[in-house]
Amino acid sequence: GVTRHYKFDIKLQNVTRLCNTKSIISVNGKFPGPRIVAREGDQLLIKVMNHVQNNISIHWHGIRQLRSGWADGPAYITQCPIQTGQSYVYNFTIVGQRGTLWWHAHLSWLRSTLYGPIIILPKRGIPYPFTKPYKEVPIIFGEWFKADPETIISQALQTGGGPNVSDAYTINGLPGPLYNCSAKDTFKLKVKPGKTYLLRLINAALNDELFFSIANHTLTVVEADAIYVKPFETETLLIAPGQTTNVLLKTKPHYPSATFFMKARPYVTGQGTFDNSTVAGILEYEKPLNFHLSSNSIKNLPLFKPVLPALNDTSFATSFTNKLRSLASTQFPANVPQNVDRRFFFTVGLGTSPCQSNQTCQGPNGTMFQASVNNISFVMPTTALLQAHFTGKSDGVYTPDFPTSPLIAFNYTGTPPNNTMVSNGTKLVVLPFNSSVELIMQDTSILGAESHPLHLHGFNFFVVGQGFGNFDPNKDPTKFNLVDPVERNTVGVPSGGWVAIRFLADNPGVWFMHCHLEVHTSWGLKMAWIVLDGKHPNQKLPPPPADLPQC
Ligand code: C2O
Q1: What is the CATH number of domain 342-539?
Q2: What is the CATH number of domain 1-128?
Q3: Distance 381 CA to ligand 1 centre (A)
Q4: Is 455 in the pocket of ligand 1 (CB under 6 A)?
C-alpha cells in the first residue's frame, strides 16, 4: 500500500437550504465534506485542524483500526477533543477491508454537518466479485435542520423532552423538489442507457432509518458495511444511520422517454415525533448526441415515482435484512466464531430519570427522557477512556463492572415495568485478547418498542440470529446461522425483538458501542468494551502519538 495525506480544515461556511442561509461547521468549506479515496492496504494520514470555537473529533466509521485505536475518534472514548486552534493527525492503515464506509464528527450532534464518504478500492489488480461498474457514485443521505443542531440537543437535554425533528432529509446535501423552496437543490444522477452503475449508499441521517427506491429500476445489493454479500435484487432497500450499502443499478437498454424519481423516507416504529417528509432526487438519462428531442419535449417527459413501504413496515424491514448474507466464498470467507468464550445479554431501550430542574420536565409524566443498555445510562467521562486504560489511571474515570445481563429481568417486550428509571454510570466490559464474544441485544418496550441501529467500533461482527418477542436462550440459538451470516458494523435491533451477534476480540483498545440514532446516544444508549493486550508485541496497543489531544 501507499501513504495518502489529507488535510481537514474545520471551519465555518454559509450554506443556503430551504430558502434559509446559515453558518455551518464544515470540512474545507464543503457540505457534505470531502471524500476519502484509498485502496485496501494503504496508510492514511489525515490532519484535522480546528479553526472553530467548538471542540471537534472525527471518527472513521467502520474502519477496523487494528492496533490503531488512538485514531478511532469518538470524543472522550479514544481521545480528548481537538480544541480551537489545535490539530491532530489521524494515522491508520486499512487492513483487510474494501468497500464504502464514511467519516463523521463524533461529539454531540456535530455530525449533522460534518460527514463524508470513505471509498476503499480493492488492491490493485483485484477485481470486484460482481460486474465491473461503468461509473461509481456515492449517495449520502442526511438530515437538514434550519435551527442549529447543537442548540436543539442542548435544549432537549435541559428540558428532558424530545428534540425538534429535522426540516428535511437530503441526498448529497440536497433536499430536492418535494420541499418548499428547494427544487433547485436537487440531486441529479445522469446516466447512459445500457450501463451498470455502482451506487455507494451511506445513511448519515441523525435520527432515522430510511427506505430508498428508484422508480422503475431494480437494484442489486452487493455489499453492506464494506463487506461483500451474496447479490440479490430489490426494488427498495432499508438503511439505518451508520450503515452503508453498495448496489448495482443497471440502466435501461435504450433511452427511455421518461425521467425517474429516487426517494428516501423514514422507517419508524417508535412513539415520538419524527420528520416524516420525503427527499427526492432525479435519475435522468442523458440525451445521446444523435437523439433529436426538442427541449420542450424533454421538459414534458413523464416522471415516474417509486412506491415506498409504509412508515412502520416492520415486515418489509425484516424480510430485507434476512436477505443479507455473507459471500462466504473461498476468496472472501466468513470467519464466523464457531465457539463462544463470553456471552452477554444486553437490553437496549428508553427510560426516564427524575426531573433535575424545579420546573416540570418535558419527558414522560414530567420526567426526563433517558436511554440505556442493561438499564445503565452511560455517563460520558471528562477524560479519554483509552488514555485512562493505557496509563492505568482509571480511578474516578470508569469502572470495569458492566453487567453481563440485566440486573432485574422483566418481560422485555410485554407490559413495561412501572419503574422506568435508569441508573447512571461509566461502566465498561473487560475482554481478554482474542476472546470470542456472543452478544444478544434485546429491544425493550419501555416507552415503546423501537428499532435501534447499534454500532460497534473497532470490529465487524456477524449477525447470527434475529427474532421477535423475548430471546429464548434454549430454543433460539439452535437456529443461529454460523455459515453465511452477514458481517457488518451496525445492526438494527428489531423493534420488539432481538438480534444475536458474534465477534472475535482481536483488537486491543477501548471500543465504543452505541445506538446510531443520535438522540438515543445523547440519552445514554451507549457503553464501551476494553479489549486487553495479547502476549505478543504485535497483539498490543502501541503508545499514543505525541500530538494526541489532551483534555
Ligand atoms: Cu458512526 Cu460511534 O459512530
Answers
A1: 2.60.40.420
A2: 2.60.40.420
A3: 17
A4: yes
